[in-house]
Amino acid sequence: MALPERESPVGKRVSLFVTCIVDMIYPETGMSAVDILEHIGVEVDFPLAQTCCGQPAFNSGYRDEARTVARHFFKAFKDAEVIVTPSGSCATMVRHEYPHLFTRADGTLYEQARRMAAITWEFSEFLVEGLGIADLQLQLPEKESFAMHDACHGLRGLGLGRAARELIANLGNAELLELNECEVCCGFGGLFSVKMADISNAMLKNKVDNINDSAADTIVTGDVSCLTQMNGGLSRSKSRKRVLHLADVLAKGLGGGRA
Amino acid sequence: MTMEVESNNFIALADVALHNDDLQHAIGEGTRTAYYKRLDTMFAHSDEHGEFMRQQAAEAKRRALRHLPDLLEKAERNLKKNGFQVEWAVDAAEANQLVLDIARRHGVQTVTKAKSMLSEELGTNHALEAAGLRVVETDLGEYIIQLAGETPSHIVGPVMHKTKAEIRDVFVDKLGMAPTDDAEEMVAFARGMLREDFLGADMGISGGNFLIAETGSIGLVMNEGNGRMCASLPRVHVALVGIEKLVDTVEDYATLTQVLPSSSTGQKLTVYTNIINGPRRDDEDDGPEHAYVILVDNGRSDIYATKYAEALSCIRCGACQNACPVYRTMGGHAYGWVYGGPIGAVLTPLFVGLENATPLPHASSLCGSCKQVCPVDIDLPRMLLDLRWDLVRAGESDGAWDMAMKIWAIGMTSPTRFNLGGLAARVGQHIMGEYMPGVLGNWTKHRDFPDFAPKPFRQLWKERKRGRA
Questions:
Q1: Interface contact B389, partner A, CB < 8 A
Q2: Which of B280, B302, B324 is the C-terminal boundary of a domain?
Q3: Does A209 reach chain B within 8 Å, measured CB to CB?
Q4: Residue B171 above 90 pLDDT?
Q5: pLDDT by residue (tens digit) across B398-414?
Q6: Predicted complex: ipTM over 0.85
Q7: Do B143 and B270 reside in the same domain of the chain?
Q8: What class has domain A139-254?
Q9: What is the pTM of this model?
């Protein structure tokens, strides 16, 4: 199915969809995203009615429940001009799955699903492809090296490509290095991580080994769910390496002086 | 008798594989080697060229599927013109009976067999052996598997789960090979054994990678040449071909014979790429006296009638297995039937019934690698999602999850309830520490879980707004 046409988001107000996990566990990451957006002059609002995109239900086959939660999303973001989210996975849900979750027979709901799909952007995609800003004119307080882990839904769902790498590479004092098998899943997969925990862990072990082998100080990714899986494994195995969300890495360049 | 289905035992079977270090090593190496070779070959000219080949191959298979009934009739007509005898089998029992009837008609005692996943599906070896025939697998990997009394764990590399040392032990134990760790010596030994079987066989069985409708030919690709020995040396050749193997034209075959080896072994072409046009003609010196094609349904037309019909485009290259991080951790046996990996997680429930393979649609992190590498662009993640939906609708999902999802959806449709849920999680974590209830406890078995934030984002946001006002 062809995705709805996307209009340029330049000059529009951004409604932040912070995602349920960021809201409850990583609020600082949400704040970092806001800080970066405001740093480049974007007006940000946060619709307080928002909860979750519905992906946990959708991915486990509970379409009725996923539709219920998606309808709540429509209501929460009904006034949004542009939606930006610090998650490739949740963006994929809205962009690719909402138009599958509702059909033409659903009438206005289908129209709303397609509208949400058309106005939703993942954070790095919004900056680089939406606004055309790959250089945020920021500098880290001290030298640090990074390597990207390409989270699956951002990479293969949205086709994010190199946006995040460009943002890091343009950051002063940042060095971009390689992570072996950076495109291979960390084993999270939502409820897969608890339903098939041992397999998920075997995948995680492979990821942790690769992270430990990387010369980079810090691994960067665009999804806090994958980050939770990887940091959970790194912490349990007493590794000193950690994974950070892209927004938090970029916000380090703001020098603590939040706008 | 078809192969036994153990797919509902997936978690336990996976556990066995996860604790087998040799298997872990062998599968990890085998899948990655093939994965990177594919990248090198498929995109040797350019990314665009590789993608274009994929789309061309996908279109050739989709076109064939759209016109399947007509093409089957066309293929039958043209096969017969070439001197093939054409039989149709609805299911495994019929297919195996047809093979047996042919064997009896021609006084067959020994059968050499080329690699055929369809014959695994049908349990053909077992049926023939039960009738007193001797069956020898001649693909090196299948030969080892047969000697070891196992089943293939990978579509293209049936013995991928075994290390070289394990293969040596099979040859030593079963065939009395003088112990050696030299792979070339082992291959030479097997080759010597197989040569005798080729020369003594009365009948050869092969599969068919493709069936070309416009010329009435079998397209058969291989690297070891064993397949063409099976198809040309014995008096009788029988090709077992699934009805979804049709392509319309030789041109389509030309496309597919490039993407198949590129995707599977990273070769531009297989060592042997055959178009087989029937039995020996009067003016020819070699070839079988009798050639049969058995067109097998065995559940395919049922799948054809569903939204999963696209899965019948599969050309059995194994690329999705090599790319799948789940498959990479445990190989194919855990999937509990003939096909492992992403394509197996889709095909198995469709072939054996969803209720007999309930874990398989969940045996994926939905990372999307399978779709990315599929040479005929089958949307495997979408099918896995649809199968999960089918599971819920068929009442085959876990009752506890059904309840949890209902409650969760209620929580997620109001910011107040969402907030209360977050608060409960914070308090709960504070009281229970590392402990997580129910299935969530599976998380902390292997990984630490972060602390819930003292203040959720929405609270920080409100404070920030107030601070500015």
A1: yes
A2: B302
A3: no
A4: yes
A5: 898 999 999 999 999 99
A6: yes
A7: yes
A8: alpha beta
A9: 0.96
